[in-house]
Amino acid sequence: MSELFPRKQVMGFVFSLVLTAAALTVYFLDLSFMAAMTVLLATAFVQAGVQLVGFMHVGESEDRTMIYMNIFYGVAIALFTIFGTLLILVWDM
Amino acid sequence: MDYFDRFAIPHPSPAIYASMVAIGLTMIAIVIGLTYFKKWGYLWSEWLTTVDHKRIGIMYLIAALLMLFRGGVDALMMRAQTAVPDNKLLDAQHYNEVFTTHGVVMIIFMAMPFIYALMNFVVPLQIGARDVAFPRLNALSFWLFFMGAMLFNISFVIGGSPDAGWTSYFPLAGNDFSQSVGTNYYMLSIQIAGIGTLISGINFITTIFRMRAPGMKLMKMPMFTWTTLITNAIVVFAFPVLTIALLLGTMDRLFGAHIFSMTNGGMDMLWANLFWVWGHPEVYILILPAFGIYSEVISTFSRRNLYGYKSMVASIVIISFFSFLVWMHHFYTMGQGPLSNSIFSITTMAIAIPTGIKIFNWLLTMRKGKIKFTVPMLYSVGFIPIFTIGGVTGVMLGMASADYQYHNTMFLVAHFHYTIIPGVVFAMLAGLTYWWPKMFGFMLSERIGKWAFWFIAIGTNVAFFPMFFTGLDGQARRMYTYSEATGFGPLNMLSFVGAIGLAIGFALIVYNIYYSVRYASRDIGSDPWDARTLEWATQTPVQSYNFARTPQVDSIEALWDLKRNGKPVFQGEIEKIHMPNSSGMPFIMSCIFFAWGFSLIFSMWIPAIITTIAIFACMAHRSFEKDDGHYISVEEIKATEKDWEVLNDENR
Amino acid sequence: MMKIDNSLPLEYANEQNKMNIFGFWIFIGAEVMLFATLFATYFTLEHRVGNGPAGAEIFELTPVLIETLVLLTSSFTIGLAMNAMRLGKKNAMLTFFSITLLLGLVFLGVEIYEFTHYASIGAGLQVSAFTGILLTTLGTHGAHVTVGLFWGLFIIMQVKKHGLTPKTANKSFIFSLYWHFLDIVWIFIFSFIYLKGMM
């Protein structure tokens, strides 16, 4: 039975629940905007990392270098697009 | 009958009725022709259901050439209308529709399929693969593109063409200012074609990463393969942005959302922003394959290996990343502050550097080379000075403060035609002429080809150089007419003359195809240009399985090394070859997509729901389908290879 | 079929399988950009509420928390299904897979409740830029989950019928990538749409 619940995945699940609880502090505590955003950014990206490495086995295939590059490239361009758009249309308007 | 009123043309004119008749007659002619010559079965089994990358490439090519003429006629109409002041050839509405469809057709339905035509045909051969990674998806890509293109093209006889410019800026493109279904056509037909392109992007990246011949490391790939890889990487990250922009535009137009509207908090400028987040990378999607073609052609006809291979690779990789960081330079004048204008000005200047590196690489490749001025080489050599004019004026436009003077004038129109025509059209014509013998087994006439080149090269300059001056004098783009007092008349007339020159050039290309089909020699061997890469190491026409033995590669120019240094490429026993099965599903599914788009365009909800379900039913069918492909037996391969191997040995 | 390499898990066992997995990773890269564009639009329009309600006025923690926990758990169970698949335990794999889809169904039910709730309190699609992009973003994610439910169901049927073969294992593995990815997207929706809107 225990082989059906490998330690790595159970720990990953527990960790993701902890991260969700940590993110909820921004709702229950009266944090400043900057502090709250820092908490959310940290918990969301760590959570994504847990899913990618722990559950999606991103590093197991022989194409791992290309897959990592694909993800990093996509995330980098995604962040540039989001923050560039905000710069153009909100912050610098 | 009220139900059918929605299909009426809002601005009918004799030209549109004439095209209705022409479209009707053409379709009847095709049906009668296919029936008379009993070609329905052939069409279905050999083309509509094929998953062979070579045939898909040729279908892309045919579609691209058709669209080239559709867009070209639009261009001629525009130049004719503005040739003299106060001209009444077209009215304002018709002119709006013509420049809109010219832009969309040329970028999305001509340039894109043209590059995918060459990628499809050449890349698997160049890397020594049997097909692409997902042949079935490849067919789906083509048919989605094709149905998107057809959907866009019926707009001008059913319901009215889009008229808000190829950029379709809101609020003009919103329901308040564009009441016809034209802009719905824009949103949905590009959406359908765009999904096809995205699938192609994934397909080619996987193909190039996983299906290269043994020994062909990344840094040993031919330059066209490199540019294809990077282009498709841009496609994969840029096209989802277009998908979302079009989705949001559709939400606004069909479902009354307020995302790009002027009321209820909507932000019209957001459309411009999203459009160019896709739109600028799209420019590089068009130009990078062109750079790859020039690299192949210049290297082949200079009889030298490509100068600065590594810097070439580095520069395209840098371009791919930078292409996502410059989009705001398309709307410096939209009202944002100096901070963002400065940042994007700097990134825009920076992206000129890697492009400059490539120009020098090509020049240095030609240095001390034994240059043969064939038609592909003429286009490549002509490209360099003409493109440089486009590039330098691009740097002028890239300076935010100066751009306030140039923005939306004919100067801009001149600039982007000076980049796209030499950068894409010349490259496609070079690539077409260069790979034509591989595709069809005979060469295009060099003599007629050279005439066509000179008409096109000179026509380009005569048509677009005057626009730099009228633009600086203040002629705005997209104005359907102007008064005589502006003094724009003579230079616009000159542009019209240039446009006619271009038209003659393209007519000559068609004549060249006709002439060469009839008279060109079929006895050209498999390597008529004495080229350097693997696609020329197959039979002409290429065997369905491309290579009987998987090539072993250890240099960038595998065929050249085989021919000059005797390095063996094809070794080992012939084994049976696994090939994918043909399938009608991509075609059927794309037809359903066509009906789906058409239903949504006219807000016909019940057919829209039915077709949506049908699309998912096709996907479910694919999930359950048993499709293990088939094998080509060793005997069959040996029979196919027999004649060719004899020939091949004689050539060596 | 193609040559089978027995040293690797079934889902990687032949060349076509490897290409399918690799191609799907590239597709996930495209999906990253797809949702990033929605987020860019959402952040731009977040405070442009016109005459409609703002996020803080309409978001409720309870349904959102249920959705989050359900989706997190389903991501865990599909991971367990893949683990069972690699152990060759078909029945355990099918059990975990079914639990995953049931949780997905619960998620979808709560989301449908949420949408009708928004519509009933005057936060429909046509109200403002904010509600428009909010519902489009949530709807795009929800549409992905819906497609996933059907797709997953088809795979379960195929595993039941054919057992664990290189083909069905490959499909299952790719589905698990898709499902985990939808969970990642939801984490970002949870953090930067709901929690940011409610704090």
Automatic annotation (TrEMBL), chain A:
For this protein, the record's Pfam families field holds: COX4_pro
The EC designation for this entry is 1.10.3.-
The domain of life is: Bacteria
Location, primary (coarse class): membrane
Keywords (A to Z) from UniProt:
Cell membrane, Membrane, Oxidoreductase, Transmembrane, Transmembrane helix
Which chemical reaction does it catalyze? 2 a quinol + O2 = 2 a quinone + 2 H2O
Q: Please list every transmembrane segment annotated in the UniProt record, as residue ranges.
A: 12-29, 35-55, 67-91
Q: Does the keyword Membrane apply?
A: yes
Subcellular location(s): the record lists: Cell membrane
Query: How does the record say this protein sits in the membrane?
Result: Multi-pass membrane protein
Give the family this protein belongs to, as stated in its UniProt record: Belongs to the cytochrome c oxidase bacterial subunit 4 family.
Its function, per the record, reads: Catalyzes quinol oxidation with the concomitant reduction of oxygen to water.
Name this polypeptide is given: Quinol oxidase subunit 4
UniProtKB/TrEMBL annotation, chain B:
As its record notes, the protein acts as a catalyst of: 2 a quinol + O2 = 2 a quinone + 2 H2O
The record's keywords, sorted A to Z, are: Cell membrane, Copper, Electron transport, Heme, Hydrogen ion transport, Ion transport, Iron, Membrane, Metal-binding, Oxidoreductase, Respiratory chain, Transmembrane, Transmembrane helix, Transport
Q: What InterPro entries does the record point to? A: Cyt_c_oxase-like_su1_dom, Cyt_c_oxase-like_su1_sf, Cyt_C_Oxase_1, Cyt_c_Oxase_su1_BS, QoxB
Task: Give yes or no: UniProt keyword Membrane.
Answer: yes
The top EC class is oxidoreductase
Give the matching CDD domains.
Answer: Ubiquinol_Oxidase_I
Q: Which cofactor does it need?
A: Cu cation; ferriheme a
User: Which compartments is it annotated to reside in?
Assistant: Cell membrane
Q: Which Pfam families match?
A: COX1
Role, per record: Catalyzes quinol oxidation with the concomitant reduction of oxygen to water.
Family according to the record: Belongs to the heme-copper respiratory oxidase family.
| Record's protein name | Quinol oxidase subunit 1
Which species is the source of this protein? Answer: Sporosarcina highlanderae
